[in-house]
Design brief:
heterodimer; A: ABC transporter involved in vitamin B12 uptake, BtuC; Rossmann fold; about 50% helix; elongated; B: mainly alpha; ABC transporter involved in vitamin B12 uptake, BtuC; two-stranded antiparallel ribbon
């Protein structure tokens, strides 16, 4: 496992490092030193240029799980703004380039703010349209005076420090230098806190929201980041051709970028570089194919999407797996059974006791059209108590938890935490007020370690700067060390064995993911923890471990806990109070032993069964 | 009266066609939860098939158009089977990109087959003189588009609210896994939806080809406007898609007439951005909530 290397405990959070990518760039640079045929020299140059866009775009496609079908638009904006300021307004080259990057970022901010409002399709449709609009405007009669219409802009000369940037031999090294910067920044972005938040957003926007992640904001930031590197490619492309026309940035260019990421390897830093080389080399390699070239490109793109979605970069991992397939169905997820852990020492835990106010729910109602999921629900959760909520499927338990975590807005009624009205607050706000929740279905980022997943629970409360993340692992170490310390303490508290802390969440057993989920909820000193079906699917002994963990957590922290579950025996042992919901209304409320004996409760749960039979 | 009424009428005509295309998009979205970026390409292929029969083989217009109808359905279903079916449990972004790949492939292939000598003239299916009410001339194209739109929207509405197939489609879109467990042949349902949406888009192709002239890129910008219509109306609403289409048709035509052609594209783009900012679910749509 990772975590033993130099660099302190912060290494436990570290994502992939861009070693392969930087090596690839070096290889490309070495190739560029050799005298190549002009056609291949051009391929190398274009690959280096488009790779910058593609590497950054991967942050959007691979980490956020969104698609941009029009990223060439940002290259176009950067290229045109830079070229026009340089040639027509006579700005110094550096200033023109800087303005170009800013212009691209501004356009991305404008359309990005709209497209993050609608997941998946918003980005796909808006970017697809944007590319069309930008190309249409650049070639239009209205702007012909500025952009030169279809004839474009000519760059007579561009020099910096005595280097002739219009010379292909020189430019290829400039492009590779830019690519190096892109790789470093993108990899720092992806492996830092923002990158982990993006992965959680990709997993589930709702879950990310309840962790305090401002989903739209983190998506917008990532989108703007990718657009800036689109502009870098655009400027380099201008220099490579010595002129600009709208046609350089048409739909094909945009789709090629997407294809570079897919064929190279989505979610891996090195992937898009390989993809860029592949797609710029393809036309030269199949020169004889003529018109059929486009067919080739499309077929390859589709084949990768269907049969090798992890791309060329995923091949080393997928190939052995494919060969093994048939013999071993699936790797065993849990290597060791979960065993009770000894009580951790006080200094390991380093947690604060919390002081929850009472939670008062009055006349709560949630309607979906004609259906009332909750109607007139009133209950009170005493400070520091464990409050169980039971009921048949459809009784409104999950809806109640969704209201209490801000995922669902109530139609009427109030929920007050102390004096604070909760109804209508956003999930992030709820989290900030100390209400945290777990989820019935596993809601972790499978590729991140248990520890890194828990650290996402600290997302909102720790001050953090993306700029420092971008500087690299060294710069963010102090911040990460604190995340690791607190997350480790939370995992100790719930009793996840130390050797499992670094295991990717996707390889944990169901019981272990439940513990991780609880740790993620309480890591930020939550004074109120909502547990959604923590016992579902667990075996008897696993349920015992979970119960021990809960009791320990409760003793150590003193938070209030609301737990929804089906296992009455489990609840009877831990709960101070128990509320029975039936068809969206409170059927009974009180001390578990007593409530579970009431005839109407027995009837609702078991049908007409004599008392005493209950397990 | 001047230029206003003709502008309104031509805006309405093109708007209804956007709306129809939007319905084709919405039917697939409702049944599979996917937006098909290749729909314009599919429609173009089907229209080219009809054109080949008519212009190449010398068939009568009606025979070519009707023969191409089942072929359109078959093309749609085939594309589903070839591109989406294998490993259809992939992430949604992966499936979405597959439709884009399909769009590229169709465009490359149509370019190969029919690229030379385009654009081609396509015979009009409806008498062009249309109706004259007082001083107002209503072109036959508008009447045909309106008729087709009403039939399509009503048909889809009935399909989804009154028939078993429609109910199954909604179940599949909601949760393919659960529907599969309940014994629904999810793949057949999805294939039917692909065929249906292709047929509707083919109808749009037939109506536009006589005026826009038949070419491999005929429906490219159409698709942008139709997608905007779907987003404006609400992804899962047929009436919303139709209304959104009409709105966009009027807006873009008015901008093209009273400003400049490029501003019609920009104004529709602005409408798309504004809709997402103010009402991301669209006029009549509902954002589906995630199961936790």
């Amino acid at each position: 496992m990772a975590g033993t290397s130099r660099g302190g405990s912060a290494a436990a959070l570290r994502g992939q490092r861009p070693v392969t990518s930087l090596l690839t760039v070096v290889v490309l640079a070495v190739v560029a030193l050799f005298p190549l045929q002009p056609a291949w020299q051009q391929v190398l140059l274009l690959a280096a240029i488009w790779a910058s866009s593609a590497v950054a775009l991967n942050l959007w496609q691979g980490y956020t799980g969104e698609i941009s079908f029009g990223h060439a638009a940002f290259a176009a904006v950067g290229a045109y703004v830079g070229a026009l300021l340089f040639t027509k307004a006579g700005l110094p080259l550096a200033l023109a380039v800087l303005s170009a990057l800013l212009a691209s970022a501004a356009v991305a901010a404008l359309v990005g703010w709209a497209l993050v409002q609608l997941s998946h399709f918003g980005s796909a449709i808006v970017t697809f349209f944007l590319a069309f609009v930008v190309v249409a405007l650049l070639g239009s009669g209205t702007l012909r005076g500025v952009t030169g219409g279809e004839n474009g802009v000519l760059i007579p000369s561009a020099q910096i420090g005595g280097l002739d940037l219009l010379d292909t031999g020189t430019l290829v090294f400039v492009a590779l230098a830019c690519l190096t910067v892109t790789v470093l920044l993108t990899s720092n972005y992806a492996s830092g806190r923002a990158g982990r938040a993006l992965l959680l957003v990709k997993r589930s926007e709702t879950v990310a929201g309840t962790m305090g992640v401002d989903v739209r904001r983190v998506k917008l930031t990532a989108f703007i980041f990718t657009a800036i590197f689109g502009a870098v490619s655009g400027i380099l492309l201008t220099l490579a051709f010595g002129y600009l026309t709208p046609g350089l940035f048409d739909t094909t260019a945009s789709v090629n970028l997407v294809a570079m990421v897919v064929v190279g390897g989505t979610g891996r830093i090195v992937g898009p570089i390989l993809g860029a080389v592949f797609f710029t080399a393809l036309p030269v390699a199949v020169q004889g194919a003529g018109e059929q070239q486009a067919v080739f490109g499309a077929v390859i793109f589709l084949l990768f999407l269907v049969f090798l979605p992890t791309g060329l970069a995923g091949l080393p991992r997928e190939l052995p797996r494919a060969l093994r397939r048939g013999r071993v169905k699936r790797a065993e997820t849990s290597t060791a059974a979960l065993v009770p852990q000894p009580r951790p020492t006080a200094e390991l835990l380093d947690m604060h006791r919390v002081d929850p106010p009472a939670l008062t729910i009055e006349g709560l109602e949630v309607r979906f059209g004609k259906l009332a999921a909750l109607s007139g629900v009133s209950l009170r959760v005493e400070p520091r108590s464990i409050h169980a909520i039971v009921g048949a499927n459809g009784a409104g338990k999950s809806t109640l938890l969704n209201v209490l975590s801000g995922v669902q807005k109530p139609t009427a009624g109030s929920c007050r935490l102390g004096d604070t009205e909760l109804a209508g607050l956003s999930p992030q706000r709820m989290r900030a007020l100390g209400l945290a929740r777990t989820f019935q279905h596993p809601s972790h980022v499978a590729d991140l370690s248990a520890l890194a997943n828990v650290s996402l629970g600290l997302y909102a409360s720790r001050r953090w700067s993306l700029a420092r993340d971008l500087l690299g692992a060294r710069a963010r170490r102090r911040g990460e060390e604190e995340l690791v310390r607190r997350s480790t303490a939370a995992l100790h508290l719930v009793g996840l064995p130390v050797h499992r802390h670094g295991v990717p969440a996707g390889d944990l057993s169901l019981a272990e993911t439940r513990l991780v989920d609880i740790a993620r909820a309480l890591v930020d000193d939550a004074s109120f923890v909502l547990l959604d079906e923590p016992t579902a699917g667990l075996a008897e002994d696993e349920m015992d471990i979970l119960r021990t963990a809960l009791v320990r957590v409760h003793e150590a922290r003193g938070m209030s806990i609301v737990v929804v579950a089906h296992h009455l025996e489990f609840l009877r042992e831990i709960a101070d109070n128990l509320t029975v919901l039936d068809s969206g209304a409170v059927l009974a409320d009180g001390i578990p032993e007593e409530v579970l004996r009431r005839p109407q409760v027995l009837e609702a749960f078991l049908g007409r069964t004599p008392a005493g039979v209950m397990e | 009266m001047g230029i206003l009424v003709p502008t309104l009428i031509s805006g309405l005509t093109i708007g209804v066609m956007y709306g129809l295309f939007a319905c084709g998009t919405a039917v697939l979205y409702k049944a599979t939860g996917l937006i098909n970026f290749a729909l314009g390409g599919l429609a173009t292929v089907a229209t080219f098939v009809a054109w080949s029969l008519i212009a190449g083989q010398g068939w009568p217009v009606w025979a070519g158009v009707i023969t191409a109808l089942p072929i359109a359905a078959a093309i749609g279903a085939f594309c589903y089977v070839a591109v989406i079916w294998p490993r259809d449990g992939a992430e949604r972004t992966n499936l979405l990109m597959r439709t884009l790949g399909l769009f590229l492939l169709i465009q490359a292939v149509t370019q190969l087959f029919w690229g030379e000598g385009q654009p081609f003239t396509f015979p009009s299916l409806v008498p062009t003189q249309g109706l004259r009410i007082g001083a107002v001339h209503i072109p036959g194209n508008l009447l045909a588009a309106l008729g087709l739109a009403v039939i399509t929207a009503a048909g889809f509405w009935l399909l989804f609210t009154r028939t078993r197939v429609g109910l199954l489609m909604r179940a599949v879109a909601d949760s393919p896994d659960v529907a599969g467990l309940l014994g629904v042949r999810t793949k057949i349902i999805a294939g039917v939806a692909w065929a249906l949406s292709t047929v509707v888009a083919y109808g749009v192709g037939l109506l536009t080809a006589p005026t826009l002239l038949l070419s491999t890129h005929m429906l490219d910008s159409f698709m942008l406007f139709a997608f905007t219509a779907v987003v404006c109306g609400g992804l899962d609403s047929f009436a919303g898609g139709l209304l959104g289409g009409v709105l966009i048709g009027l807006l873009s035509t008015a901008m093209a007439v009273f400003a400049a052609p490029e501003w019609s594209v920009v104004s529709v783009f602005a409408l798309l951005l504004a809709t997402l900012l103010l009402r991301p679910a669209g006029m009549f749509g509902r954002l589906s909530s995630e199961r936790l």
